[in-house]
Write a structure and sequence with these properties.
Length: 127
């Protein structure tokens, strides 16, 4: 027995929000986090005895992963500008912008989705 396509979509959507519940029975999953950039974790349901490696290569949405359009990139930048959490337009995962301050009063920002690995780079003025 294995998880259905719909259950896998739920599993991935929840895992990238740090919600580790079995999509079949609701039991808390056993999680082993990964240090690899393309693998989030390995999960196992103790009740159903099902397991899965949650990675970009196994993702049910992997065929939809693509670069952001200029309009999507603008929305991500705008959300960051207004101090809101940007959301990946492809898979709905929250994006955590990473900034590095330069000597000028600006920050270089990389806003990359952990799930699809696409992102936007820009400069945030005034910090």
């Amino acid at each position: 027995m294995s998880w259905t396509a719909a259950q896998l979509q739920t599993l991935y959507a929840n895992a990238y929000r740090a919600i580790y519940l079995c999509p079949t029975c609701g039991e808390t999953l056993n999680v082993v986090l990964s240090r690899k950039s393309d693998v989030l974790c390995s999960v196992r349901c103790p009740a159903c005895d099902l397991n899965h490696l949650i990675s970009r290569h196994n993702d049910p949405l992997r065929e939809q992963f693509r670069d952001y359009t200029p309009a999507e990139a603008k929305i991500i930048k705008s959300a960051d500008k207004w101090q809101q959490k940007p959301v990946c337009p492809i898979d709905g995962t929250e994006i955590e912008p990473m900034s590095q301050r330069s000597l000028a009063r600006a920050s270089n920002v990389v806003a990359r989705c952990r799930r699809c690995d696409h992102g936007v780079e820009y400069t945030r003025l005034q910090g």
